């Protein structure tokens, strides 16, 4: 399991060293786990003498990937996404570039020997329990050079921010990174009243709850996606917070609160649309210029409120803008769906009494010709063409019926 993953990473590191190309094109996600992943790998590759060119993506959209794979002889790295689309990357690559996938979501094997899928899901580790994207990047960084152990705190930050705990505590490789950070003086772990653990991060301003710091990064990467937020987020990971980053976060947070308050008020007035197992809503383009990550954040916000039915899956739609930072205009004509569940339903899913989101949302999306990449059992998101929103809901209901939940 873990040994096999480490062996695969060692082989990938050897292939990397053989490359005459000395520039790494690093594509990473824009949430806290993705930003810490980007920071870890930036530092690790630079220490090996590579130049790093970063691109922050909300999703590895096919329209973007087609542009990326017009190249040949390059080093392309995906962090915190792309594990599931290794076959698509293989088809696009055709052996022309060295591609490394350092994801932790549910994955599929590569069909191209030059697309190395190092997603721990393929090695028996669970991305919504054992290992975050940042912890995956950290394992690879340590494979490149054991000196990169000093990046353990970034791996642990990403793991805590991703929010996948067992009985309120990190486990497996996520926990190993946190304990390493404790040993290095970056972290403190304290028991939380009522069970679980509290994780604290050391900094010039004293000890900060890691969940608060993760929220800080999420605001930069998600709310500020179409601005300078993601670059500021990676910089904060590597250099620490600053007055400038504080001001950015304050402004972005105000933007988010205004948009969220308006949508919550609308939901209280108009309510959700309902099918037998799903409650859903659509924000259109009202969250712009915030990134489409925000529809998932909004679902996380409302899932604990009295406006939701705690026994139904929650789904929200947001239109994907026809532009991608770093790439300029990219015709999309897509809408993103994010799904969550109320806290009381989480245990129902974990116990197997109801299907996890990863079992039916990607399949329904595939049936409609949409794009599916990063899905977990309790959090999931895909995209479909604008105009297929109702069809996607209906298709999910059909699949749930096939599972015996009609």
What does this structure look like?
The protein is of the alpha/beta class and 406 residues long. The protein folds into two domains: 2-156, inorganic pyrophosphatase (n-terminal core); 272-402, Diaminopimelate Epimerase, Chain A, domain 1 (Roll), CATH 3.10.310.40. The chain has 14 helices and 16 strands. A six-stranded mixed beta sheet has the order 9-10-11-14-16-15. It has a five-stranded parallel beta sheet with strand order 2-1-3-4-5, sandwiched between helices. Strands 6-7-8 form a three-stranded antiparallel beta sheet. Helix 8 (210-223) packs across helix 10. The radius of gyration is 20 Å and the shape is globular. The model has no long low-confidence stretch (mean pLDDT 96).
